[in-house]
């Protein structure tokens, strides 16, 4: 649907543009016209003459304009527990931190969401995703707190309503008091979808069904969760094939590897995306490609937890949808997705494909259209095309960090983190001159610090 003829227009001109469309169309000097919440036109040179209702005209000299970044995996609450268990592998890290995470409440969840969202939005993320799976009894409306924080900031959100029902007594990793019952998890997830999911083209909030992982969730919750998601018409998300320990766990408990287990429980399909997928063999990748199952690649977290190098080049060659994820900030303390463009490229070049693994434009595509595709929103966001939603970023590339890198896309991927002069979400400014304008960054930092300290005191008191 095109924008209304009476819609207010914003024009950006004289900028380099990487559209990330199907043809990777780029302009050395071009324009973008935004009308209301839609992109009206993108092209070379100046914007068309005679446009009405122009409320803002921006000279984009020295900038690259790209689609907004799309984050496909995160755990917002972990903003409160950064810098802990820094020398642990995944399983030991989880065991160390689950007792702390199991004490979160509604104010903590909101503060963690505000901090995580602020860091991402300031760095060019226009669509965020949160996989929240810790719902302690009596902790309040955690999903509502997370959605409220995203709404206040003006960022699109996919909330993956997570759950756990396999605790230590059942052979899982979470403490017994940190999990839900099978029935309780399914009922609460359905309630969250019905209350908050918006299926419209320009939705600001969507909800997915997201049991946490094979080692924290029963087979019944996996299978019935998939049935619930498909009955409600929403997407499915979980962690998959993250470590060699997970693969061993699945073989010991289920008699099969993670991908086989996921397929047996209904968890492969074009409506599914999984985080990490580090330890995938050729048949696993073929199964994902055959079914259209997506992957959230989290290079920094994978390195932080010594999980390994995901076979992203092989996945892309096979046709697997791949996007980028920050992952929780207890395993990626910076919390910034734009650094993942660079890290995805560099880390994958340490793998079998070496310098041919990924290039700058492939990395940018992972962080934009790839993420939109993984979240099921490839027709709405992720590229700069007429009729799509006006989610875009202006990166300043004429300063000290980038001025001697001649190619704009190379500058923002290979170079230092580029400042964001402007970020639009749904046609509305969220970032101006490298600062959030929808929330007070200092207030967010103070609140998060206070809630982090309160959480530490609660844990210390037992």
Shape: globular
Give the end-to-end Cα distance, rounded to a whole number of Å: 55 Å
Structural class: alpha/beta
Mean pLDDT: 96
Helix content: 25-40%
- Specify Rg, calculated over alpha carbons: 21 Å
Low-confidence stretches: none
Report the portion of residues in β strands: 15-25%
Please describe what this structure looks like.
By secondary structure, the chain is an alpha/beta fold. It is 35% helix and 21% strand. It has helices at residues 90-101, 106-122, 142-153, 182-196, 219-232, 244-254, 258-264, 282-291, 299-304, 312-318, 338-348, 360-374, 408-414, 441-460; strands spanning 9-18, 26-35, 38-44, 54-59, 63-67, 69-70, 125-132, 156-163, 205-211, 236-240, 272-276, 294-297, 322-324, 392-396, 420-425, 428-432, 435-436. Strand 8, helix 4 and strand 9 (205-211) form a beta-alpha-beta unit. Helix 11 (338-348) packs across helix 12 (360-374). It is globular, with a radius of gyration of 21 Å. The mean pLDDT is 96.
Helix/strand layout:
Blueprint (H helix, E strand, L loop, with lengths): L8 E10 L7 E10 L2 E7 L9 E6 L3 E5 L1 E2 L19 H12 L4 H17 L2 E8 L9 H12 L2 E8 L18 H15 L8 E7 L7 H14 L3 E5 L3 H11 L3 H7 L7 E5 L5 H10 L2 E4 L1 H6 L7 H7 L3 E3 L13 H11 L11 H15 L17 E5 L11 H7 L5 E6 L2 E5 L2 E2 L4 H20 L2
Parallel strand pairs: 1-4, 1-5, 6-7, 7-8, 8-9, 10-11, 11-12, 12-13
Antiparallel strand pairs: 1-2, 2-3, 5-14, 14-15, 15-16, 16-17
Helix pairs in contact: 2-3, 2-14, 4-5, 11-12, 12-13
